[in-house]
């Protein structure tokens, strides 16, 4: 079944908006990171810059979910984009140099607030702009766009900043947000979701979302599984710059390229899946993703051939990319539209909490330079996926 004309127009707008917005994010972070790194106490301010995003997101994400389920989702998205654009332009044009450091931190916090409000609505709106059976295709196209920009974005950001300067780069960044917002404003809502008539406090609305997930055990298992996987993937991201050099002094650069290629191929391949995957297949995808990591180090030790680990990294990211797309699609197609914004706020908050926890945990229990870490992480993914699959099957039988 193909996208109809209105769905295709919506998909094109969403993909272009997402691509422009992602490029703006990369440009904003690149310009500010370069500027902060040149300060006398740059490492401290970089830590403040990065940590402020996480702290703010934890507290604001639930508010974003509540607003998403109570207001018009399209309006939330484009208004947040426009405000973000205005803030970036103001930072570039009106802030004097002696206030720039504090303004950058402040604007970054404000953008994190806007992103936390916007993101649940953005994921929830897919059910309003295309039919449920087409959501997976839209997610695949978005991931393909994301992976392409992930490859080209940093180089493009560097070129832009070098030739037009930091101030003009921030101005362009603001324009990317505004373009993104204007595209979202033009979305054609095909399936309107009526907000609940019962008046409730924000706390009660969040509590209702947790009650909903406790009733929908399968969705809860999938979300809990994804949260644990994020915890383990934080360990992978932690060791990649360090343990890569156990293979070769140039391995890290090759591994980063392999990540992007694998992720892009995974996104393209996921688009070929014509129907939504059953939730139990999500566990299998992660179990399969662990295999390349398990064999990566022994393969290199046996052959001393760098191409083997490169292929393993590409295959691993191929599977992770497919999992991310199918996980989002599963939530978007199975969660009740009445609660979907709050469900996504729970998903995002869990990811925000579990990722730094994973980084600190694996940093404390592993020698980050040991190549055998890939084997342990791959094995852990397989064990967690197998355990989740057993829990899922037992719960399915109980429901049946």
TrEMBL record:
Keyword Transmembrane helix: yes
Gene3D superfamilies per record: MFS general substrate transporter like domains (1.20.1250.20)
A GO CC term assigned to this protein in UniProt: plasma membrane
GO MF terms held by the record: transmembrane transporter activity
Subcellular location: Cell membrane
Pfam families from the UniProt entry: MFS_1
InterPro entries: MFS, MFS_trans_sf
Membrane-topology annotation of the record: Multi-pass membrane protein
Keywords, ordered alphabetically: Cell membrane, Membrane, Transmembrane, Transmembrane helix
CDD domains named in the record: MFS_MefA_like
Keyword Cell membrane: yes
Superkingdom of the organism of origin: Bacteria
Membrane-spanning intervals of the chain: 44-64, 76-94, 100-117, 218-239, 251-270, 282-300, 306-327, 339-362, 374-394
Record-given protein name: MFS transporter
Upper lineage: Bacteria, Bacillati, Bacillota, Bacilli, Lactobacillales
